[in-house]
User: Fold this.
Amino acid sequence: MISVIVPIYNTLKYLEQCVGSILNQTYRDLEIILVDDGSSYFCGKACDEYGIRDSRIKVIHKENGGSTSARKAGLEIANGDFVSFVDGDDWIEPYYYEKMVSAQEKTGADMVLSGHFHDIGKDSRKVKDNFPTGVYTREQLLPALLYAGQFFEYGIQPHMVTKLFKREILRKTQMCVDDHIVMGEDAAVVYPSVLEAEKIVVLDVCAYHYVQHPDSMTKREREDKEDIYGLLFAHLEKSFKEKNVWEIMKPQLRQYRKYLLCMHQISYFDEKVLVPYGGIAGGSKVVIYGAGVLGQKIHRYLMRKKEISIVLWLDQKYEIYREKGLAVDAPNEILKVPEYDFILIANTVQSTAETIRHYLVDNGIDDRKILWFSEEFRRA
Assistant:
């Protein structure tokens, strides 16, 4: 039996699609645990109604404590041999658990890993692990577990929702995570779980839809991020040292730390303006290419610093960001702007950054004006 734990916090308008997609699985031996993490009355009531409709559903109501706390609450009552997670505003394809269980039964794996669809509006992009399909020991995954060698690409994606975990492993790894780890809480469980597993299978399957709703696309700033990440890094360091893999994981964790701080607290590198890009001289005029998490952080950061002027903000999905009130334009608008010093590619994946660079160069942009994370920053 698979226990499917669904942490829910005020996701009422997405709940029908989410829970419906779990109930419609072709694999039927499921225990579905809806954890109402202090939601509004109507959201909690909807959970209870699902519990009445299908005997496989259990409902927990608790005070709001965050996703880690909600996952723990679900795990405490889970009876399945294996455990999976679905976020309350996402959904899964009907064959998801059938594929996962089939792979587990064929291999005897302690963890099953799959990819996911990253959905923004009508755009859906596949995201997979950087290991070929196959069966691995933890030792085989270690050299590229957290960092695949290019900034920034994971070896194994940190998302809990794309994994099937042996329940006994999760009882060791999930239950010891500090509830105050609210950034990187998935990584705090996934990588220690790999170290507990004897056998891991990586699938060439994408069946989970990680949905970026308009409500979640404008990222809020938190002033305490450095402290929060400190908890995460300390937790991972402790886990790696306990398993005697610290030497191989230390450089990977260093790269991961740089990546997270770039994504969520770029002001951390404040010796000069935008140190990850090599440092930008005061008075410069820049174009930001990318309006995702990193692009929004850079835009907000530069608006606050006021030392550098933003003359244009670009993204292929500009229409979606405009719906949230962000002043983002189509990429071809760059051809209409005569004066700027640099174009900052606001994307953390090297292959994607190179694609953007080629697009700009093919359209007559001087390559010397196009900046991405500097070699010095990536290799440090």
